Amino acid sequence: MAAAKLHLSVRPFCLSFVSSARMLEDSVKVVVEAKRYQQIPDVLNSSEVHNVNPFLFLSTVRENTRVQIVGEILQSFTSIRPRSRPGIAYSSLLSYTLQSSNPLPLALAILQRTLRSGCLPVPQTHLLLSTAWLERRSKSHSVSSILLEMQDIGYTPDCGTCNYLISSLCKVDQIDEAINVLKGMTRAGCIPDLDSYGSLIDNLSELRMTSAIIETLNEMVVRYGLSPRKETLVKALAAIRANKDIWRAVEVIELLQNEGVHVGFECYELVLEGCLENRQFILAGKFVIEMTKRGFIPYIRCRQKVVEGLANIGERELANAVRQRFAELRS
Predict the structure, then answer these.
(1) Which terminus has fewer CB within 10 Å in the chain: N or C?
(2) Three-class SS state of 329
């Protein structure tokens, strides 16, 4: 009996929800058919129904017409203030498009407008976008050709859109494809920025992919003249050190120095500690002298280990040079 009562009480609620959802979709459809697109945010923001997509009716129109309608909607939203007011509309449009039969490049255009409005897509967008992207790429389309398809509907690829795509691919462990996107951006006329490289290097560092980290840093610094953020550089060097590739970590420091990139004390100390961990005392001695030339004095524990390590392997001349250097600096 109790179960029967519960069933009867749930049924009216379900019917009410379905009815409300249908009314919301009908309201949006009426506004769209009348081309009163700027009213869409008000309709959605005033609704208490949030678990349905009000743009499902677009599935009933031809693809070309659907693309045209969505393009007109996006264009109409550009004059709305505050810019974040169409946030729910952007989210619904993006979710609907990514789950449609041919999501790209329209989804990229919606994503671009969403990001430029200051809104962030819902978390599941990362998975939906990655899935749509990989499916298109599986059909032998190049990165640049997919990005440039945005021009066919009146949009131009930009860093914000590409960076979100890179982040999405990294979140689903598609690091190689994220690297492909980074390399393909330039051919699409979109020059990578700090966020493009920072996001990728952070993820490469988590996976401790030494060669990819160094290659990406080199491209970032040498080719584009960008200086890695402190946090990104620390993560990268920590990953290289964790892999015991300490010689390569020193080479990264040298590269950055030669390119005029500021390298902070934390990075030097991190690499020096790696030299000591791997008992590379000669390398540590030479590195610590270069370190002091930059005005950085290692912690006393590291200073002692360098001198003692050199003495123990018979490198007394270098040990004395290091000790003398510390004395000159009164440390």
Answers:
(1) N
(2) coil
